[in-house]
Design brief:
mainly alpha, 10 helices, globular
Length: 215
């Protein structure tokens, strides 16, 4: 299996990539401000599952296709970008209803379904170009092919990456949801949060769309 040295080196590299906020982090923060801690943490779980789906794809050989094909990479990238823009537009249009939604959440009223939240997080995680390129181009370099079981090694390394990402994104979500109460004291502030969150997701989608390959 993977040696301790390779595992430690991959963990360090993964940490450096994860601590730099990307699409997943910004999406989690936006959901935390708009909907609170439960939705934020559920989104983190969905993101993590989506990212691990990318690991599985690389381990099964699909990652090499994405890495080598500009067309496949572009289609996946644009699909993820379009989804972010869609969510951003929806958040912007509903920004005025955030205070009512906040009150329902605080009083135990209806909330956004967990499966829906999980699915939205998964979609963003699996279409994240930063992790897509990282897994396709970097992950295979830490595999010791002399030890065999290459797919298993990749899956193990992917677990390390996702464990770090889960912890980091959860902290971002908790910090953002903690600040939500201050915004909720003023309808204007809360509406601004919804608007800023929506515009952030739209801008993020546009950024993802115009982000090119490093090759």
């Amino acid at each position: 299996m993977v040696s301790t040295d390779r595992l430690a080196a991959f963990a360090a590299l993964s940490f450096l990539l994860i601590v730099i906020p990307g699409p997943s982090v910004l999406f989690v923060v936006g959901r935390a401000l708009a909907h609170g801690r439960r939705v934020a943490l559920t989104t983190v779980v969905g993101n993590t599952i989506g990212a691990y789906a990318l690991v599985a794809a690389v381990a099964l050989g699909v990652g090499s296709i994405v890495e080598r094909s500009v067309l496949v990479f572009t289609v996946l990238k644009l699909a993820g970008a379009a989804y972010l823009v869609y969510l951003g537009v929806k958040a912007w249009r509903r920004r005025g209803s955030l205070r009512a939604a906040f009150r329902r959440t605080e009083s135990g009223g209806p909330r956004q379904g967990a499966l829906r939240t999980l699915g939205e997080g998964f979609a963003v995680g699996v279409a994240n170009p930063k992790t897509m390129v990282f897994f396709a181009a970097v992950l295979p370099q830490f595999v010791d092919r002399a030890h065999g079981h290459v797919p298993a090694q990749m899956l193990l390394l992917g677990l390390v990456f996702n464990a770090i990402a889960l912890a980091s994104d959860s902290v971002w979500g908790l910090l953002a949801s903690g600040a939500r109460g201050w915004f909720a004291r003023s309808p204007r502030r809360l509406s601004a949060v919804g608007g800023i969150g929506g515009l952030t997701m739209i801008g993020l989608g546009v950024t993802v769309a115009v982000t090119g390959r490093t090759d």
